[in-house]
Specification:
By secondary structure, the chain is of the alpha+beta class. It has 2 domains: 83 residues, no CATH class; 237 residues, Beta Barrel (Porin), CATH 2.40.160.40. 21% of the residues lie in helices and 39% in strands. The radius of gyration is 31 Å and the shape is globular. The N and C termini lie far apart (81 Å).
């Protein structure tokens, strides 16, 4: 009788221990699942999305015990949320409403059209602040190298209204408040004497941007305002963590648009009046994200002067420059 009692007691103790160990193991698996899911944050880049997808799709080992494993759902991507769960801070339904701010330290070297000898290979160190603020379709912007995907190749500091916008196209009416060039590229960017106004059409296609700018208005107060127009195309690609890009463009200025070369404006000769006003640009670069906010990049740019500007420089500055190059490095902090 005593033996039977001890045998039953031993079996009960062993069974209790097995249940306790199985329950503890299941709790550890559940805790592990919770920790794994807590570590998965909302991805902000394609690279982070791929990593998050691998983490969330990793199968959890089945527990052979009778205890159930509790799985915590990961945080959904924005596109997976219901419309009711998304808070939209925009006024109206313009998808371009928002704010961008980038601060860059730029070191560049190359030709400088503002010098008597444009091929002096002047080196510069600049700090540039580029931004775009748009609210209720009204915008204020200052383009820079760090905002090239937003502003395109030929945009200058301006304010205006984004009167049409959809997933692929954006139409702006703008008025320039400055004719300064882009920091790092100023040496080979030709300035106008007067600010201009006009229409800008931007197409945001897959991995690329197509932009057309037409400006028939200026504030020169000297009769005809002339015409300035440009067409540019930019392509962006991804290779591991590196982003590479290439931009090409052409710009036309009629003879009424007076250029600035650093030594005043002068009078155009008769030969210059009859010359073509078409110039060409090309730019290529690489970008590498050091962190979520810091980006390191490098670029090389080329500008071919129009026949009119070549004639102007020969007559007024006694310079024989026909084209120019600049290259540089920049470190940008994106807010």
């Amino acid at each position: 009788m005593t033996l039977s009692y001890h045998s039953v007691l031993s079996k009960a103790i062993v069974s209790s221990l097995l249940i306790f160990v199985s329950g503890a193991h299941a709790t550890n698996v559940a805790k592990h699942s919770v920790v794994e899911n807590k570590l998965v944050s909302v991805p902000e880049t394609a690279t982070e999305k791929a990593i998050a997808a691998q983490l969330t799709e990793k199968p959890i080992e089945k527990n052979t015990s009778s205890a159930e494993v509790t799985q915590v759902e990961s945080i959904p991507y924005p596109e997976e949320c219901d419309d009711e769960d998304v808070i939209d801070f925009r006024l109206g339904n313009n998808s371009r409403d928002g704010f961008f701010l980038g601060v860059s330290a730029i070191s560049s070297v190359g030709d400088d059209f503002s010098l008597p000898d444009a091929n002096d290979n002047k080196a510069t160190l600049d700090v540039d602040i580029s931004y775009r603020l748009q609210l209720a379709s009204l915008f204020l912007e200052s383009p820079g190298l760090s905002s090239r995907r937003i502003h395109g190749m030929y945009s200058l500091p301006a304010w205006g209204i984004n009167f049409y916008d959809n997933d692929e196209w954006s139409f702006d009416l703008f008025y320039q408040y400055s004719t300064r060039g882009i920091k790092g590229l100023e040496g080979i960017q030709l300035r106008n004497k007067d600010e201009r106004a006009g229409l800008r059409i931007s197409g945001y296609l897959e991995n690329s941007q197509l932009q057309f700018i037409y400006s028939p208005v200026s504030r020169n107060g000297e009769g005809s305002d002339g015409i300035e127009a440009s067409l540019s195309y930019g392509y962006n690609g991804q290779l591991r963590n590196w982003t590479y890009y290439a931009d090409i463009g052409l710009q036309y200025r009629s003879k009424e648009v007076t250029p600035y070369h650093g030594y005043g404006y002068g009078e155009l000769s008769e030969n210059a009046d009859d010359s073509a006003g078409l110039s060409y640009n090309a730019k290529a670069g690489l970008e590498y994200p050091l962190s979520k906010d810091w980006v390191f990049s490098g670029f090389v740019a080329y500008h071919a002067l129009s026949d009119r500007n070549i004639t102007y420089r020969q007559a007024y500055i006694e310079d024989d420059a026909e084209n120019g190059y600049r290259a540089g490095l920049l470190l940008s902090f994106i807010f």
